[in-house]
From TrEMBL:
Transmembrane segments: 6-23
Gene Ontology biological process terms, A to Z: protein transport by the Tat complex
Protein's recorded name: Sec-independent protein translocase protein TatA
Protein origin, superkingdom: Bacteria
Broad class of where this protein is predominantly found: membrane
Segments of this protein annotated with the region Disordered: 52-72
Family: Belongs to the TatA/E family.
Annotated HAMAP family: TatA_E (MF_00236)
Native source organism of the sequence: Cytobacillus horneckiae
Pfam family, one: TatA_B_E
GO CC terms: TAT protein transport complex
Amino acid sequence: MGLSNIGIPGLIIILVITLIIFGPKKLPEIGAAFGKTLSEFKKSTREIMDDSEKETVTVAAKKDEETNKTTT
């Protein structure tokens, strides 16, 4: 069971509970903080994926170079 199973009614209930706990004045601050956190998470994930792809290309290039050395 994951987040994809929550649905619209579940999201509405979560929003109402959040509104009750934090109040309407604090909600924009919480939303902004959540947005920044999500943005940073996406940025970090993208950087990790880019680094992983670069490393894969480098390893493949070294392997090809070694293969060429042994066959010649």
